[in-house]
Design goal:
With 751 residues, this protein is mainly alpha-helical. 66% of the residues lie in helices and 5% in strands.
Length: 751
């Protein structure tokens, strides 16, 4: 085929393209058109065909561009959308006709395929026309902006088609038309809009209103992005902008806002729904959740410190303090479970907050021991098994917050000893149930002494029964036995609180009874030693008051010290404080405490010569009150509290350091310091753990040894690095360890 013949064939194809553009393709024979294009390519006239198609399409697109350039803004978006749809239809039909050219000529000569060339021409001729692209881009952005402020706009379908057109062109040509002419400006204006709107709205509304508005805006933008079929990259960038402007930039303000911020919401239990809404909003930016967690921690610490302050001032007793902690825990746990959706990090921070204010001193451990004592003495009486279980688990709940668990053990052991020895526990089963719970928390080592105390009481019951049988046998054989009956609890020294108090002088009849028991016990248990604790125990004595035939007899239940004091008046009608002290050897302050208890208005068994509540001095004298009366035949004489004793004697004896020291000893250690026995025990535990570790590891760096010792002992208490270091130095002095000559922070075990 010569050039003239090829031109003739092309002219027929050109006319056919014109008809396709004009939508008059029904009369065309696509088979014939395909054959003509095929012949041109076969006959080496592919360039004529390719260039001709390009020029023909360009010509039609130029006309389209001119028409769109003169189209008013009101209908421009729709016209552009329609023109592109028509162009796509045209190029699809032309592509079918020129299919052979695309498979051969285009691939051989590295040209664009017919369809892609058509998109390229549409971009360069129509879209990039000086009076089309800038107007269309601005109209797109304006339509979205109008939507945001609630005005009616063009149909989203039109916007979606134009954005789809830009994406289709980008995909075909691997260009950046979409980002350049829409996405960059869209994201920039979105940021400006929400930056301004969020600041203005927050300045005039509450935090809760802002949260509701922000969530609504996020949902609107999500629906718009879906409706416009925005690509994932744009959606991600849009989301980042929204999260930054609506949440991240205002997070701290939303937490701290006066009257409505998250910190304020925490004070009101009814606002838990608003807290949850704010958490859900903040959860979209995980790092901003720290602001909410910090607010929660600050609130818990503030409430906790208020509880501590009330307890310190004496406004609340130990039981109220623990109940306050439990109430706080219930409240803030429900907030974490609901508002924070049970988030593990929030739970951890909540636990740390409680630990923060409960471990400032030993107050919490002391109060918890008192609270447990109150439960086991009386509060659980008549409670069901389920209620008892709840109350005991509450004790364990607070116990978990306490770092220095050995401090609680020391206080708890003192109260347990009193309950067991005085028989004031409501139920042995419940006592053992609580010990089992403590054992589950801290292991056998923690409760071994407590379990030993129960075992001692069980053995003591058997021993008392055996002693009664022994006495019955002796009474048959001998008539000279003491008339005093005694019940003795034999306690293992290592299990029970170690109180070193001098033995007082007991009445001869009581001493004889004690000697008889000692003979009985030591014959059965050779090699053992009995040490009598006369500072504890109670006695029941028969006392007669009155004269001239008006004798009133009562059974008085008194402490051992009170018994010793009262028995003196069988021989003397009046005794001074100095004489009583000499005859009984009772420690000074304990003597005053027990004497004052016998002189109280309600139980005035003794009269004292001085006026007032206290004792005037060593020459103050005491005598039996013959006028004592009581409606009950059996009278229990209580002891005054240590705080009452302090009030009575501290002014008089303020200058006497021995008395001050004795008062401190009787009242127990301050909540800010450890009991001396416990401090000594800690030294031994740290040293023992250090030696065990070094014996196994042979050598260890300082920091590693500190970490290992802390890990081993944390179930009982958390020793400070300084405390461990001091014990390490003590072990080096005693040659259990030594330092490496080259590295002084490296320790080596000395075999």
């Amino acid at each position: 085929m010569d050039q003239q013949g090829a031109q003739t064939v092309w002219n027929s194809l050109a006319n056919a393209i014109d008809e396709i553009v004009l939508r008059n393709s029904s009369a065309l024979s696509f088979e014939e058109l395909y054959r003509n294009s095929y012949n041109l390519v076969i006959q080496k006239h592919g360039k004529l065909l390719y260039d001709g198609v390009t020029l023909k399409i360009s010509s039609h697109l130029s006309t389209t561009a001119q028409n769109l350039a003169s189209t008013p803004d009101a209908s421009l978006l729709e016209e552009v959308s329609m023109s592109f749809d028509e162009h796509i239809t045209t190029m699809s039909m032309v592509r079918d006709i020129l299919m052979y050219m695309d498979r051969t000529y285009v691939e051989t000569h590295n040209e664009k395929s017919t369809f892609i060339q058509g998109l390229h021409l549409y971009r360069t001729i129509v879209w990039e026309h000086s009076n089309v692209q800038c107007r269309v881009s601005e109209l797109l952005l304006k339509a979205i902006a109008d939507e945001r402020i609630g005005e009616l706009t063009d149909s989203r379908d039109v916007l979606k088609k134009i954005l789809s057109m830009l994406l289709q062109i980008d995909t075909a040509e691997n260009s950046n038309v979409y980002e350049r002419d829409f996405a960059d400006a869209f994201l920039g204006r979105t940021q400006e809009f929400y930056q301004m709107e969020s600041s203005e709205f927050l300045a005039e509304n509450s935090a809760s209103d802002y949260v509701e508005k922000a969530k609504r805006r996020l949902e609107e933008e999500k629906l718009r992005a879906t409706a416009l079929a925005l690509p994932p990259t744009t959606v991600d960038e849009l989301q980042n902008i929204l999260h930054t402007e609506l949440i991240k930039r205002h997070a701290k303000t939303l937490v701290s806002m006066e009257n409505s911020g998250f910190s304020v919401l925490l004070k009101d239990e009814t606002k838990i729904g608003a807290m949850r809404e704010m958490y859900d909003l903040f959860a979209k930016i995980p790092e901003s959740l720290d602001d909410l967690r910090n607010a929660l921690c600050d609130r818990v610490k503030e409430d906790g410190n208020a509880l501590v302050a009330d307890q310190e001032r004496g406004v609340s007793d130990p039981a109220s303090f623990v109940q306050g902690i439990l109430k706080m825990n219930d409240r803030y746990t429900s907030i974490v479970d609901f508002a924070f959706r049970g988030e593990p990090k929030a739970k951890k921070r909540l636990k740390e907050s409680f630990e923060n204010f409960l471990n400032v001193d030993t107050r919490a451990a002391s109060c918890l021991a008192v609270y447990a004592d109150m439960l086991l003495r009386s509060s659980i009486k008549g409670a069901s098994e389920e209620e008892v279980s709840i109350l005991l688990n509450n004790v364990i709940l607070v116990f978990r917050f306490i770092s220095d668990k050995d401090v609680f053990e020391a206080f708890y052991k003192e109260h347990l000893a009193k309950r067991l020895l005085t028989g004031r526990s409501v139920s042995d089963e419940v006592e053992k149930q609580l010990v089992s719970l403590l054992k589950a928390e801290c292991g056998y080592q923690f409760t071994s002494k407590l379990e030993g105390m129960f075992n001692d009481m069980r053995i003591s019951r058997d021993t008392r029964e055996a002693y009664k049988n022994y006495k019955r046998e002796r009474s048959v054989q001998s008539k000279g036995e003491s008339s005093v009956d005694i019940d003795v609890d034999v306690l293992t020294t290592g299990y029970w609180p170690n109180v070193k108090v001098p033995v007082c002088k007991l009445p001869q009849s009581v001493q004889s009874a004690m000697d008889n028991f000692s003979d009985f016990y030591l014959k059965k248990h050779t090699g053992r030693k009995l040490s009598w604790q006369t500072s504890t125990g109670t006695g029941e004595i028969k006392a007669s008051f009155g004269s001239n035939g008006n004798i009133r007899t009562y059974n008085l239940i008194v402490s051992t010290y009170q018994m010793c004091i009262l028995m003196l008046f069988n021989e003397d009608t009046e005794l001074t404080l100095r004489q009583i002290a000499s005859k009984t050897s009772i420690p000074d302050l304990e003597l005053q405490r027990h004497l004052i208890s016998l002189c109280t208005p309600k139980y005035r068994i003794l009269r004292k010569s001085s006026k007032g509540r206290g004792i005037s001095g060593d020459d103050d004298s005491f005598s039996i009150n013959d006028g004592y009366k009581s409606n009950a035949r059996r009278v229990k004489v209580p002891l005054i509290s240590m705080s009452s004793l302090k009030d009575v004697v501290q002014n008089k004896y303020a200058a006497d350091p021995k008395v001050g020291q004795a008062l401190t000893s009787l009242q127990g250690s301050s909540v800010e310091t450890l009991p001396p026995q416990l401090e000594e025990e800690r030294r031994h535990l740290v040293e023992a753990a250090t030696v065990r570790i070094m014996k196994a590891r042979k050598q260890l760096h300082h920091n590693d040894l500190i970490a290992e010792v802390t890990k081993q002992l944390q179930s009982r208490f958390v020793p400070t690095p300084q405390f461990i270091k001091k014990r390490i130095e003590g072990l080096i002095e005693r040659e259990y360890l030594e330092r490496n000559e080259d590295d002084h922070r490296l320790y080596m075990y000395v075999a």
